[in-house]
Amino acid sequence: MSTDHPRAPSRPQPARRLSRRHFLMTTAVAAGGAVAGLALPVAAWANDTIGTARADTMLRVMRDTFPHGPQIVSLATYQRLVEAMLDEAAADEGVKGLLRDGVDDLDARARAAFGRPFTEVAEDYEREGILRGIETTPFFQKFRWAGVFGIYNAPDLWPALGYEGPASDVGGFLHAGFSDIDWLPPGPSPEELLAQVQR
Questions:
Q1: Which sign does the torsion angle of CA 35, 126, 128, 142 carry?
Q2: Which residue intervals of 136-177 are DSSP H helices?
């Protein structure tokens, strides 16, 4: 059922739409194959504020926390997010200590659990388990908010994510594509919801 209002201005469509299956497949590819993809000369993109090995670990954490496929979020985008954190660390001793100590703690946890540093833990679910153990820490929250704002608040990434942008300029989402996503199963109709409430 279309939710477009006849008086609503037309909205530009994203460059391409992703099916739910395609979205999940590209995410899985990124998560499963990213270890090999990180065999990069880190010094070529990251400053040496806390050491290149730690920067490599930070890149792994950022990609594991926001595991989109390369068709959606490029490696260069993840690198840019980490580089911004390292630039902040270069100017702020508190941030520098937070990142340095957080990476060292993460590696210590990985060695205790799997006998190797975090970046060498091959299975994505194993790395996820380690990250879940620190998800309430200031270190992890630093990555969380850097990724939320750096990825989901970046207009150049919106088309790949299937987001059409804010609708305030066309009167809100109700009459401008509120329910036009095609990668979620259809929910119950208003009549079905009403019937559930009246039981």
A1: negative
A2: 138-152, 158-161
Q: How far is CA 171 from CA 42, 46, 53, 182, in A?
A: 46, 43, 49, 22
145 lies in which domain range? 20-160
Amino acid at 164: E
Per-residue pLDDT reduced to its tens digit, 75-134: 999 999 999 999 999 999 999 999 999 999 999 999 999 999 999 999 999 999 999 999
Q: Is residue 173 part of a domain?
A: no
Q: Is residue 14 part of a domain?
A: no
How many CB atoms are closer than 10 A to CB 139? Answer: 20
> How many structural domains does the chain have?
1
What is the sign of the dihedral through the CA atoms of 56, 97, 118 and 84?
negative
Spatial separation of the C-alpha atoms in residues 133 and 119, rounded to whole Å: 16
Burial of 154 (0-12, 13-18, 19+ CB in 10 A): middle
Specify whether the CB–CB gap between 124 and 67 falls below 8 A.
Answer: yes
Let me know: does 127 contact 65? Beta carbons within 8 Å: no
pLDDT of the residue at 185: 75
> In terms of Cα–Cα distance, which of 83, 80, 44 is closest to 157?
80
